Automatic annotation (TrEMBL):
Residue span, ABC transmembrane type-1 domain: 72-284
Pfam families named in the record: BPD_transp_1
Protein species of origin: Rhizobium oryzicola
Record key words, sorted: Cell membrane, Membrane, Transmembrane, Transmembrane helix, Transport
SUPFAM superfamilies with a match to the protein in the record: MetI-like
TM segment ranges: 20-38, 58-76, 83-102, 122-143, 155-184, 204-226, 233-253, 265-287
Designated name of the protein: ABC transporter permease subunit
InterPro entries found in the cross-reference section: MetI-like, MetI-like_sf
Similarity comment: Belongs to the binding-protein-dependent transport system permease family. CysTW subfamily.
KW Lyase (keyword) present: no
């Protein structure tokens, strides 16, 4: 006969037993804690500290100096331009793939390439564009020698606003394709048929039905592309060095240990970047949730 003591021991053992299915997320949780949460907390604390460890708001006040404001301005403009162009081009490609009658055999390779290209950045991407569109790049020399088109004489410079924007498009367009294609797949055929029965033209269907449904997804993806571009560090440093004063390059100069470097100002710069990208990602999550309600 089972005693009360044995029952209590069994209940206690069941309480401390961890479900095995949680073990799968332990490595990911540790990774996020070590490489995302703790560094973010370190940045947030360091932005309000002096080199001696005291509390100060001077670091944040220094963000409003003309040079830093100019860096934020050009970073925001590059991010806006690359996100806008990425959305327009990526949406056109996805619409042609899903709704334009392109062969389905193209979809698999395009989606595979988009998955790879959306994560292709840093030094390899910078080298690829220098070798292609740099002063001695393949396309630059090809246009100059065969078609007498001198990109340099026309004012194009890879180490400039538009040069960096075009480079960012290499991963912005594929990311747009990956995100917007499922949204286009979610447009129900019944909606188009109902609009057609009611006498709506194709333009009216897109303006009054399809586009309002897709708008949250498009705006949310735009916010995500903006954050993706604003936070890109390795590509900008490898491509432009110090010739273009954007926030990631200014941040790198502050924390790498130069004589004039100020690590705590670097923390403040990083904190400002976290705020900007955090707001953009929050907008993306909110708009994504709204679009998913329509697709259900």
């Amino acid at each position: 006969m089972t005693t009360h003591v044995e029952i209590a021991d069994t209940v206690r053992a069941e309480r401390i037993r961890l479900p095995l299915h949680w073990l799968g997320v332990v490595p990911f949780t540790i990774f996020v804690l070590l490489f995302l949460i703790l560094p973010t907390m370190k940045i947030a604390v360091g932005a309000f500290q002096t080199p001696e460890g005291g509390f100060t708001v001077t670091n944040l006040y220094n963000l409003f100096t003309p040079s830093i404001l100019a860096a934020f301005d050009i970073s925001i403009r590059i991010s806006f331009a690359s996100a806008l162009l990425g959305c327009l081009i990526g949406f056109a490609m996805s619409a042609a793939l899903v709704l334009g009658g392109l062969p389905q055999a193209i979809r698999g390779p395009l989606m595979t390439f988009s998955g790879v290209a959306s994560n292709f950045a840093g030094v390899p991407l910078a080298f690829a564009f220098i070798a292609t569109l740099g002063p001695a790049g393949f396309i630059t020399l090809f246009l100059r020698d065969d078609f007498d088109i001198n990109l340099r004489a026309m004012g194009f410079n890879l180490l400039s606003f538009w040069g960096l924007t075009i480079t960012y498009l290499f991963f912005q367009i594929p990311l747009m394709i990956l995100i917007i294609t499922p949204a286009l797949d979610g447009l129900k055929r019944e909606w188009r048929e109902a609009a057609s029965i009611l006498g709506a033209t194709n333009a009216q269907y897109w303006r009054l039905v399809a586009f309002p449904i897709l708008l949250p997804s498009i705006l949310g993806t735009f916010a995500l592309l903006f954050a993706n571009s604003f936070g890109a560090v390795a590509t900008a440093i490898a491509l432009t060095g110090s010739s273009l004063s954007i926030v990631p390059i200014l941040l790198y100069a502050q924390i790498r240990g130069d004589v004039l470097g100020n690590p705590n100002l670097g923390y403040a710069l990083a904190f400002g970047m976290i705020v900007v990208t955090g707001l953009a990602n929050a907008i993306y999550v909110w708009l994504r949730a709204r679009s998913e309600r329509w697709m259900k």
